[in-house]
Design brief:
The protein is an alpha/beta fold. The protein is 37% helix and 19% strand. It has six helices and six strands, in the order E-H-E-H-E-H-E-H-E-E-H-H. Strands 2-1-3-6-5-4 form a six-stranded mixed beta sheet, with helices on both faces. Helix 1 links the parallel strand 1 and strand 2. Helix 1 packs parallel to helix 5. Keywords: Molybdenum cofactor biosynthesis. This is Molybdenum cofactor biosynthesis protein B. Belongs to the MoaB/Mog family.
């Protein structure tokens, strides 16, 4: 059974950059994601830059998950191993189900680029209240890899044999 549509289903996608130092001017990762999602035919629901604070991240993501106007949340940053990197801990408790294959595939793809350093990636994906949530590392290269290697296809209703769109909207 195919879960693909014959036409693009534009999704409303919110983008969060988690960083203690980035501004709108220096946020190349968030800017890349906005440009990529709009070029693919999706709509930007909102773009925010937040300091790496687990509770502020959780509050914003909770608001987006609760909103019927947001089908996808993409977060860049805060996925490393420093004491300030709390994105996975902020997001994981909000998920109804984790998409284990997202992080696994992201690490598989980045292994080709980074070798064993990819084991330090804590990329994460999941579904909550019919909203897909994806956490990517903060570098623009990682966002490019995550978008081009996984998200562009999985957020496209035309992708066969299956994609995430069926879980986010009624086709």
């Amino acid at each position: 059974m195919s879960h693909a549509s014959q036409e693009l289903v534009p999704l409303n996608i919110a983008v969060l950059t988690v960083s203690d130092t980035r501004t709108e001017e220096s946020d190349t990762s968030g800017r890349f994601l906005v440009e990529a999602l709009t070029a693919a035919g999706h709509r930007l629901a909102e773009k925010v830059i937040l300091k790496d604070d687990k509770y502020e991240i959780r509050a914003l993501i909770s608001r987006w998950i609760a909103s019927p106007q947001v089908q996808v949340v993409i977060i860049t940053g805060g996925t490393g191993f420093t004491g300030r990197d709390t994105t996975p801990e902020a997001v994981a408790p909000l998920l109804d189900v984790q998409i284990d294959g997202f992080g696994e595939l992201f690490r598989h793809i980045t292994y080709q680029e980074l070798g064993t350093s990819t084991v330090q990636s804590r990329a994460l994906g999941g579904l909550a209240n019919r909203t897909a949530v994806f956490c990517l590392p903060g570098s623009t290269g990682a966002c490019r890899t995550g978008w081009n290697g996984i998200l562009a296809e999985q957020l496209d209703a035309r992708h066969k044999p299956c994609n995430f769109v069926q879980h986010l909207v009624s086709l």
